[in-house]
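Chapter review: from sequence to fold.
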Amino acid sequence: MIILGLDTSTRAGSVAIFDTEGQAPCEITTSGSAKHSENLVPDIDKLLSRCGLALDEIDLIAVAIGPGSFTGLRVGLSTAKGFSYSLNKPLVAVDSLMARAFSAGKTGETAVCLDAMRGEVFGGVFSFYKDKNPNEIVASSIFSAEKFAEICKSRGISSIYTDSVGDDVQEIMENCDIDIISFDYNSLNICKLGYITYKNNGSDDINTLSPRYLRDFLPGVPR
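The token string follows.
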């Protein structure tokens, strides 16, 4: 099965193609311009060309559903829905934070966060064990940085993984004796988790699927 994965949940967008039969994966990560409406479809075209594939050879579309950037999530999901509808291909939604936790490559519980601005984070804790499906331990939600640090410490977690937090959040976490581990992220794990989701639960309904914003858009906050 050939899976197209899209993640526009942060300023740096990412598109990937993953073949469950073992062909080498391909991915493109854009710069942090946040111009997903301009970059996403051209990046998909570039990726297909690089992989030697036509769009109709894609078997499954997986998209980051949130939490994350208000505008980015909207652009990513609308693009994924458009491809799903026009190509008659199944679509699955993947939690943005679970995909990042999966990228960390740890066994056991992994905490991840994204900057939600104004001293807040989108945070969640997930567990990964060999031969078991990923599990949500602390559901993706919005927290003050201090509160999420407290939750992690209560579970014996001393490190939080992220690819997108500001200096203010990092300082708060460090003051709470939590290490922030930055890592490079791409949407290959959107593909992999999308495949697991599809095998277990089938596809999502494109008519009812909506972004997981977790809060209303705040004027004046970068999107």
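Two observations follow directly from the output. The radius of gyration is 17 Å. The helical segments are 36-51, 70-87, 96-103, 145-154, 167-175, 188-201.
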